[in-house]
Design brief:
Residues 5-78, 92-161 form the Glycine transporter domain. It comes from Aliivibrio finisterrensis. It is a single chain. The protein has helices at residues 2-24, 29-51, 57-60, 63-78, 89-111, 116-137, 151-165, 171-192. The protein is globular, with a radius of gyration of 17 Å. It is mainly alpha-helical.
């Protein structure tokens, strides 16, 4: 139940990031909803389709859609107010949602007897896939393809998750280790502005 609640929390946070980007691009309410939806459930949808886990999760549990729609409405109303949140609230919340999404993605892939390497990839897709779709629709270079430590945190967290299972530790405990690893790395990247070296070719 706790994981499910945090999963819903992550869905809402990812939806907010979609709404904010849609607002910067001056989209209408339909565009806002589309961008918020693909951000929140896009990665999990790709994961389920790749694993053959159909119908995908938000079809069997429409609470995800409800959370997205309510988040869109509230964000569009509240964002017009002059009161502003501290800068760290959304990045930290995003990090929590990201870490849980990766853990859920890895765990679901393993439940479908996927190879550990495939499970890690499914975890990364679950955590980052929605953001990639969002940025592509907005005609921006996806953040995970730039220098910021984002997808890297997901990969390391997924590796920790699958590696701990090799010691015959319960899946829930292994997932906790993976989620914690992803979260710590992502929070460290936010706090100290950590980034990967870039690859650039001289003209």
């Amino acid at each position: 139940m706790l994981i499910y609640i945090i999963d819903m929390f992550g869905t809402a946070i990812f939806a907010i990031s979609g709404v904010l980007l849609a607002g910067r691009l001056k989209m209408d309410p339909f565009g806002v909803t589309v961008l918020a939806s693909v951000t929140a459930i896009g990665g999990g949808t790709i994961r389920d389709m790749a694993l053959g886990a159909t119908p995908v999760f938000w079809i069997t549990d429409t609470n995800y859609l409800l959370v997205i729609f309510v988040t869109c409405i509230l964000t569009m109303l509240i964002i017009r107010k002059p009161k502003r949140l501290p800068w760290y609230v959304l990045p930290v919340s995003d990090a929590i949602g990201l870490a849980v999404f990766v853990g859920i993605g890895v765990e679901k892939a393993l439940s479908y007897n996927a190879d550990p390497m495939v499970a890690v990839i499914m975890g990364v897709i679950t955590g980052c896939g929605g953001g990639i779709i969002r940025d592509v629709l907005a005609r921006e270079v996806p953040m995970v393809l730039r220098s910021e430590v984002y997808a890297t945190a997901c990969i390391i967290g997924g590796i920790v998750h699958t590696s701990v299972l090799e010691f015959n530790i319960q899946s829930s405990t292994a997932m906790l280790f993976g989620v914690a690893t992803t979260l710590v790395i992502r929070l460290a990247a936010i706090r100290w502005h950590l980034s990967l070296p870039t690859f650039a070719l001289n003209k």
